[in-house]
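Hi Prof. W.,

I finally got the Secondary thiamine-phosphate synthase enzyme YjbQ prediction working! I wasn't sure whether to trim anything, so I left the full sequence exactly as given:
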Amino acid sequence: MIFTIEVPTRERFQIVDITDEVQRKVREGKMKHGIALVFTKHTTTGLMINEPEEGLLQDFKSKMKELIPEGKGYLHDRIDSNAHSHLRAGLFLNSELVIPVDGGKLLLGTWQRILFVELDGPRHREVLVMLCPCQELPEG
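And this is what came out:
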C-alpha cells in the first residue's frame, strides 16, 4: 500500500516535520505491524530522523551551508545553478527511511521525528509512504 504526502515548501532551504502525516498514513492503512518506507522523489530534497529543536535545525542548515556553499563554480551550475542543493542532499541526507511499526504506531525514540529537508525551494514536493505489513510473531 502506497500513500503520498504533499509537502509544499515556502523557503529555499527548509526543514519540515512530517512525522504526524506519516503516522496518519499508517493509521489510514490500518497496518498494525511492519515497516513504513518513507521516500522522497526529488534529488534536491532529503529525509532524516532527528530532534526538531529549532536551534539544532539552524545548526544543521548552517553547517551544510558552510561545508557546501552556494555558487562555488560547481560544474552542474552551468545547467541550473543548484549544484549545492544536489551535493547537500547526496552527502548529508537520505532519500529513504525505514521505520518499524508496532501496534499501529511508528517506533520512534522519545525525541525522534521524521524531517523532510527542502534544499531548492520553494516548491511543491511529494513524499511516498509505502506500508509493508509483517505478521505479528507469537510470544515465547
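The chain has a mean pLDDT of 96. Does that look reasonable to you?

Thanks,
D.
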